Amino acid sequence: MRESLDHGAADDTRRRLVSAALKQFGRHGFTATSTRALAAEAGTNIASIAYHFGSKAGLYRACGEHVAAAITETVGAPRDHAGCSPAEAAELLERMMRAMVGFLCTSPAADTLVAFLLREMAEQGAALDTIYGSLIEPKHRELSVLWGAATGRDAESEAVRLAVFAMIGQVVYFRIGRPVVQRRMGWDDIGPAEAARIADILARNLRAAIKGQRL
Fold it and tell me: Is the dihedral of CA 62, 68, 73, 76 positive or negative?
């Protein structure tokens, strides 16, 4: 029983450290974030960082792994879509896009995940390799395969890859531009109802883009 309790406490400390690190690294970057600030944010002692992650760099890598895993849980792990019809591919693209909108616009966890990811992309930090290799590239390839199936184009063509980035970019804007969107729309918040309206607009854009590229 004692061993089980100790294990649970250790897991809780790890979770709190990763949560704290996502916030601190997302706000200040790796170099400017001290182990003291990380421990204070997590409500634990500095030694716990070395104990659980080996170093600040180890905690940083764990943050990258957490971001990749959390987003994969939302949008799903890449799957094989061989033999998918154009209609099925278009439906899957819309379903994934709506899942991304729902997560980015309404999940409280999205704030820290996106802040960390944006800083990683801006600074090309070490965790970006982890996120790109385990999330961005494989998911982008899957979406490209679906886009290719929906339009009849080569999945690895420049046009398809750029179209997929454009689709993702539209969704992400409603997270990073949230304060501006709320002001212009007169919304107090972006909750499920507002997110559904955003998703409906983006779904129409998606269908039009697919139709425009269809061979």
Answer: negative
Q: Which has the minimum average pLDDT: 38-47, 108-117, 164-173, 189-198?
A: 108-117
Mean pLDDT, range 24-37, rounded to an integer:
95
Domain that holds residue 141: 64-213
Please return the burial class of 203, using the count of CB atoms within 10 Å of its CB with bins 0-12, 13-18 and 19+.
middle
Backbone angles phi, psi at 188, to 5 degrees: -75, -25
Q: Is residue 145 part of a domain?
A: yes
Of the chain, the end-to-end C-alpha distance in Å amounts to 64
Tell me what pLDDT residue 184 has: 98
Q: What is the domain-level CATH number for residue 110?
A: 1.10.357.10
CA distance 111 to 96: 20
Q: How far apart are CA 52 and CA 48, in angstroms?
A: 6
pLDDT at 8: 66
Sign of CA dihedral 205, 207, 212, 213: positive
Q: How many domains are contained in the chain? A: 1
Question: Is 102 inside any structural domain?
Answer: yes
pLDDT at 74: 85
Is 137 among the domain residues? yes
Query: d(Cα 151, Cα 162) in Å, to the nearest integer?
Result: 14
Q: With 80 as the cut, is the pLDDT of residue 34 above it?
A: yes
